[in-house]
Amino acid sequence: MRWDIAIPILLMFATMFPVAYLAVRRSRKQQNKTSGYYLGGRSLGPWVLIFTVLASAASAGTFIGTAGLTNAQGYGWVWGAVMQVPSAVIALGLVGKKYAIVARKLNLITFTDFFKERYESRVVTFLTSICMVIFLVAYMVAQFVGGARVLESITGINYFLLVVIFAGVVALYTAFGGFLAAAFTDAAQGIIMFVGGVALWIVVLTAVGGFAEIETGTKALDGDLYTLPGASGFDLSMMISYAVMFGLLLSCLPHVSVRAMSYRDSAALHKALIIGPTLMVVFTLGFGAMGLIGRVMYPDAELADMVLPTLIIDHLPGPLAGAVLAAPLAAVMSTVDSMILVVSATLVRDLYRGFVKPNLSDKAQSTAGTWTSLGIGIIVLVLALRPPAFLQHIINFAIGGLEAGLFVPLILGLYWKRGNALGAILALIGGMLYYLLAASFFPVLAFGMMPVLMATVCSLVLYVVAGFVGPRPSHRAIVKFWGTQKAIDDLRTV
Fold first, then answer.
1. N or C: which end of the chain has fewer CB within 10 A?
2. pTM of the prediction?
């Protein structure tokens, strides 16, 4: 084992537990235990807010999957990843402002709480919950695989053992520390990602002789790596698809948008909107483009996803390599902890409390959330024992499924008063069904673009038509989402 590389990573793992302990102590001071566990009492400042949003959005796909696909298929995948740059601004601006105001008015805690209150339909609540659980579990599997692969490249220890260790650390600090543990560790991990990305560019580009040498070397191996669409398939329609999928639609992902409920005040939100794009440029461009460098250095690499970790280990001094390798691990951990909490909240509050035991107490919900989070981590661990060939493919599939089902009923539910339960049901079912058919069985339905784009159009059409032909939302729903706080309070006294 390379201890000079492993020690910085072990130190990162070690810091997660005292952070989780501090989060537990702070959460205990919250009057509402459930809100404290899942939202941290809505107390995040600008730096923690933006890092927890970006760290949740930037995953193993950003740091490992994109580099692997760039290595195998060319530069088009870098352009695809860069489409994430405006995602934080859109998530906090388009969704966050309105979403947080409504969440505070109505004391919403989970992502599904919005759908429950807006559409007043148990069917909508159930469909939203199922959509989230299925696709987020698939997403988390890919994250655990990415983390274990990085550790495998460093230690040489068996992949299966590493999955158990890695998943165990994430599941434990998330289960017992809750949202604040996830948010505080996300902030620390986000700093690691940023510094790691900058260090990687400076040191590795210096070692290989700069962009000119990379271009010369890769063109000598395969000139199509710089050709669009090339093997990556990035023609104009695909670029538009990725801009929509990773720029606009990313704002509806539950583990990203739920962060919009957690900021302290408007000043924190506005500062985060300014900081976000710069950080995301480093996250996406800094790591994704390294796939081309890996193509020059390791033209015969058997596993493309391992090129970036190998490149870092071979060309950076041990301690610095360990610190930089902590970045993709941090990305994985910060994404998974966010998803575990979202799925846990869905299972405990939206399904168990909503359909099985409506009178579940606040303390019981918090306790159930802890053990459910731990159980989710174990389930995902078991599924991760059989890793996919390319992480980015499974990540794209999971993201697309979530976006196709959730984007339209979330955004139009926030901004269009005529949106109703029928529209939400049709949009959820129609969007997910169209996506699954286009992605897995009938590619022609995608019309040459990413399946999620046309699936979202289908979801939008169904929602709008149902809004005009179906029953109008109740007076209560309109007051709750567009009325004053006094009007909302008056409803509660009726």
1. C
2. 0.73
